[in-house]
Amino acid sequence: MTVGRRIWAIAEGYIPSGGLEGDSALVSHETACILNAQEVDVNLRITLYFADREPVGPYCMPVLARRTLHLRFNDLSDPEPVPRDTDFAVVLEADAPVVVQHTRLDSRHQNISLLSTIAFSE
Amino acid sequence: MTVGRRIWAIAEGYIPSGGLEGDSALVSHETACILNAQEVDVNLRITLYFADREPVGPYCMPVLARRTLHLRFNDLSDPEPVPRDTDFAVVLEADAPVVVQHTRLDSRHQNISLLSTIAFSE
Amino acid sequence: MTVGRRIWAIAEGYIPSGGLEGDSALVSHETACILNAQEVDVNLRITLYFADREPVGPYCMPVLARRTLHLRFNDLSDPEPVPRDTDFAVVLEADAPVVVQHTRLDSRHQNISLLSTIAFSE
Amino acid sequence: MTVGRRIWAIAEGYIPSGGLEGDSALVSHETACILNAQEVDVNLRITLYFADREPVGPYCMPVLARRTLHLRFNDLSDPEPVPRDTDFAVVLEADAPVVVQHTRLDSRHQNISLLSTIAFSE
Q: How much is the ipTM here?
């Protein structure tokens, strides 16, 4: 099953610093959900863009064959963590086709709010 | 009226285990809404992808001509139910063009939160 | 400015029957937002699809040149109103290019919840 | 890295007049998030469309090379501010490819509600 594209972009990145604590599922988070429906592993290169400084990256990671990776930007650390309360944007480059969906859970105000969209693909 | 595509993907699948009880409309659920605007019935084959195990499927079902099916992943059972609180992704293959939109209602924290996006189509 | 397409689809239609009362902006509603950025009026034909009965329509209306119409499905009446608490889907046909975005405000549980996506275009 | 398109549209524009006060991050706002992943600055021309009057614009601004701009429509002032509680739609024209994502935070009812979608691109 070959489904997807190699270049994806998310223009709306933002990790709120506050939110519900304790249950990691309810902590405010920003996610790129990646589906690799193919028979081969895929290598991802992620670059982050900011409002007022140079891009950061690449963040490199595999997505295994026939697997999905729901990647929290909260958890990225190499080359550096993603700052909270800061506008950013994302380009994801894969060496084989994948599908990328962008989701945020925002629990700053003690209620859960969600947004999601299929990312832009080239 | 021929509208749609044959291959669709949802990368962000997740059914929260908690939520409002009683009214089935308010129970946390994950949905693929499928529109078959054509004059012929369509057969769907759905495959689920996970983070750490082999894909499961196909789940097979028809979408009748000139009908919409709002399919809750909560209700799938054959070949097996969809685990709760677990990241997954979805590929839907139809034997004629359909339109697929992905929606989640999350009522874990006793408020309603919604997300929706037209799925990715090949 | 010519921007858009002629055929659009929304697979996830649903008008909750409950919600906040009084302020019409906060009443639960389902909307197709249509942008006609062109120099000519556009005629829309809308057909609704259901889970278990024949499609209803067309609902016909103009979108004037250089205008946007944020159309609430709650307000449709001819040929018949849209039932509440009922799954439906939508095909919109325009005689010139428009852009369609689907939005729902759900205030059933006394909080506001939103979803939105650019509709599927052929 | 060249990613994106030159013409984008958002059909669902609306800035609620009420909401949480104090923290600007929680004020109700409507945003176009723009990613310019290229090596050259991009010039944006934004036109707003309304339900019952002529379009307003252009609003002109740059998006610098390798930067993202999360533009709040709340903050536009030249040629005129964007009215609150008023339906509008948006066309963005860039002189080189960008990616545009539309997001709203609605805090009218003292909870946070979010919607987001990749905008429509020509």
A: 0.96
Q: Which among A29, A23, A121 is positioned nearest to A84, based on CA atoms?
A: A29
Tens-place pLDDT, residues C88-113: 999 999 999 999 999 999 998 888 99
Q: Do C98 and C36 meet the contact criterion of CB atoms below 8 Å apart? A: yes
Does the pTM exceed 0.90? yes
Q: Which has the closest alpha carbon to D122: B86, B28, B56, C35? A: C35
- Domain count across chain A: 1
Q: How far is B68 from B63, CA to CA, in rounded Å?
A: 7
Residues C113, D108: contact at Cβ < 8 Å? no
First to last CA, chain D: 20
Residues in D touching A11 (Cβ below 8 Å): 33-35, 68, 99-101, 118
For residue C19, tell me if it sits in a domain: yes
Residues B1-35 have pLDDT tens digits of 789 999 999 999 999 998 888 888 999 999 999 99
Q: C97: part of which helix (H) or strand (E)?
A: strand C88-106
Q: Please give the residue range of the domain that contains residue A51.
A: 5-121
Per CB-CB distance under 8 Å, the chain A contacts of C112 are none
By C-alpha distance, the chain B residue nearest A102 is B12
Residue C56 near residue C14, CB atoms below 8 Å? no
Position C95 in a domain: yes
CATH label of the domain that carries residue B60: 2.60.290.11
Interface list for chain B against chain A, based on CB atoms closer than 8 Å: 7, 9-14, 16, 47, 49-52, 54-55, 85, 87-89, 91, 102, 104, 106, 108-109, 111, 113-120, 122
